[in-house]
Design goal:
alpha+beta, BirA Bifunctional Protein, domain 2, YbaK protein, 3 domains, 16 helices, 31 strands
């Protein structure tokens, strides 16, 4: 492709609304343009990268026996009611009424549609297992789209769905998709961490996220460099620390006292007033779980983890109690709740408060707190659980070494859905014994355009993008220093035609621009191999090959080009 015959609108200026590195570079390098908040045009360079990512995904999915189809973006709302998820997605669902006054949904995901398809066509165990997948545009009405294509309202997903007759079959399907994901991300040049994750509104029991560490990531990941443990902070286990606060644990119980704390309702304010650290305080959080109030005790320097609380309680709905419920449960106002004297409500304590003595709690009375509170003497705890968010100072739950918490971008998510959708939507089959049995399902999603953004986040420098060779828009860019000179023009065209004839994707910068502009644009758009043709080199009968990722350059004769270039541009193959 010749630059003058293509469309590559590069920009010198950094877009003012672009926060993430990938967002800035995708716009500056002419990959995308914003048409509205959270909606982007893919320009020719960006589309070439997108198609390469899609092709890698297809190849790896097909290797595992998955079958591609294409599901509609428009979905009748009745399907969402049948699965019970309509209220879960809430305002994220983009919906409208058609001319027949029927509510339609722009699909944010396709579990309902695929389950409806399968329940109408799979009748017997002989038709199982089957895995179906698609690459499709999805829609979510994000409150705050940001970071370009990382969090947008219109995005491209590969989603696959496995259907099996039993859990053994689901385990095998899950394993195949997990392996496919490892191969996909490896071929796209991404270093991912496979992390234990929360299934969220998707449902199911077991799930893993494939994450790429990046400052622009909106997810938080706890991982251990020593043993390789990795998990979303929503599910990362916090082990009992034991003697971290040994001085507090060994203290003798003091006399319980009620003290005035006028208008002080936060850990920070109460701690400053009483001159105690947050680790010497216990928060009493009142939740409503499936309409039943429950109290959760957490040490003052930790945050409650509602994902863990919900899982422990095995409830469908969990929310913080409002002021009226708090008054009813504790007989005191919001901000002064405590476990002493608490009756008629279930008390569950996080492991973080185990063994500490003489701590501070609310007194269930306006403007009052207790000091020198001690368990067993002042209140009883019958239930203990891990209910808090993991923090940097926590040990790894796998090897007890230091854990690290970093921002990450979610690339893909695999779920063992189990029977959530098949039971709700009556997707059944006749088993070997002639019994009607629900199909067991798995779900496997990849953010296709997120792969592009994550690749740029992982592969860039101050000059621009550094594409991994497998997903680069072109493998080679030819840079004639002065294309208007006959000798340079002639050699540039010869090199261009030679590489084209070898089946190598090549871009010839044939613009009437200065060498500086051409070099800057070449670095910005990040094509892996640069072939530089200039007067000095030609006098020696040489061309310069420069590698974008390392900056390494070598001089070769024109006749060597056909043999040298393929060494650098042979695509990496999947190990599966």
């Amino acid at each position: 492709m010749r630059w003058t015959n293509y469309f590559i609108p590069t920009l010198k200026e950094v877009p003012s609304d672009a926060e993430a590195v990938s967002h800035r570079l995708m716009i500056r390098a002419g990959l995308i343009r914003k048409i509205a908040s959270g909606a982007y045009i893919y320009l020719p360079l960006g589309l070439r990268v997108l198609k390469k990512v899609e092709n890698i995904i297809r190849e790896e999915m097909n290797k595992k026996g998955a079958i591609e189809l294409y599901l509609p973006s428009l979905q009748p709302v009745e399907l969402w009611h049948s699965s019970g998820r309509y209220k879960d997605l809430g305002e994220d669902l983009i919906k409208f009424k058609d001319r027949h006054d029927r509510i339609m949904v722009f699909g944010p995901t396709h579990e309902e549609v695929i389950t409806d398809l399968v329940r109408n066509h799979i009748r017997s165990y002989r038709q199982l297992p089957v895995t179906l997948y698609q690459i499709q545009t999805k829609f979510r009405d994000e409150v705050r789209p940001r970071f370009g294509v990382i969090r947008s309202r219109e995005f491209i997903m590969k989603d696959a769905y496995s259907f099996d007759k039993d859990k053994t079959g689901l385990d095998e399907s899950y394993k195949k998709m997990y392996e496919a994901y490892v191969a996909i991300f490896e071929r796209c040049g991404l270093k991912t961490l496979a992390c234990m994750a929360d299934p969220g509104v998707m449902g199911g029991d077991i799930s893993h996220e494939f994450m790429v560490l990046a400052e622009s990531g909106e997810d938080l990941l706890a991982h251990c460099a020593s043993c390789g443990y990795a998990a979303s902070v929503l599910v990362a286990e916090c082990i009992e620390i034991g003697d971290v606060l040994r001085t507090t644990h060994d203290a003798k119980p003091k006399l319980l006292q009620e003290v005035d704390t006028p208008g002080l309702t936060t850990i920070e304010k109460v701690g400053a007033f009483l001159k105690v650290g947050p680790h010497q305080m216990v928060k009493t959080l009142i939740y409503v779980a499936d309409r039943e109030p429950v109290s959760i005790l957490i040490r003052g320097d930790h945050e409650a983890n509602e994902t863990k609380i919900k899982k422990y309680l095995k409830c469908s709905d969990l929310e913080m109690a409002d002021e009226d419920i708090i008054k009813k449960v504790t007989c005191g106002p919001l901000g002064f709740s405590g476990p002493v004297g608490l009756k008629g409500v279930r008390i569950i304590a996080d492991y973080s408060i185990k063994g500490i003595k003489n701590f501070v709690t609310g007194a269930n009375k306006k403007d009052s707190h207790f000091i020198n509170v001690n368990m067993d003497r002042d209140f009883k705890v019958k239930e203990w659980a891990d209910l808090r968010m993991i923090i940097d100072s926590d040990p790894c739950p796998n090897c007890n070494k230091q854990i690290k918490i970093e921002h990450a971008i979610e690339m893909g998510h695999v779920f063992k859905l189990g029977y959530k959708y098949s039971k709700a939507m009556s997707a059944n089959f006749i088993d070997e014994d002639g019994k009607t049995t629900p199909i067991i399902m798995g779900c496997y999603g990849i953010g296709v355009n997120r792969i592009i953004a994550a690749s740029i986040e992982s592969h860039n420098d101050k000059k621009g993008i550094i594409w991994p060779v497998n997903i680069a828009p072109f493998k080679v860019i030819i840079i004639p220093v002065n294309y208007n000179k006959d000798n340079i023009h002639k050699v540039a065209d010869e090199v261009y035609n030679t590489l084209k004839n070898e089946g190598i994707e090549v871009l010839l910068d044939d613009r009437d621009e200065t060498a500086g502009v051409k070099f800057n644009d070449a670095e910005l758009i990040g094509i892996p191999i640069q072939v530089v043709i200039g007067e000095k080199g030609l006098k020696k009968g040489k061309l310069e090959i420069k590698l974008r990722d390392t900056g390494e350059s070598i001089e070769i004769g024109k006749e060597e080009l056909k043999n040298k270039i393929p060494i650098f541009v042979i695509p990496a193959k999947s190990g599966s």
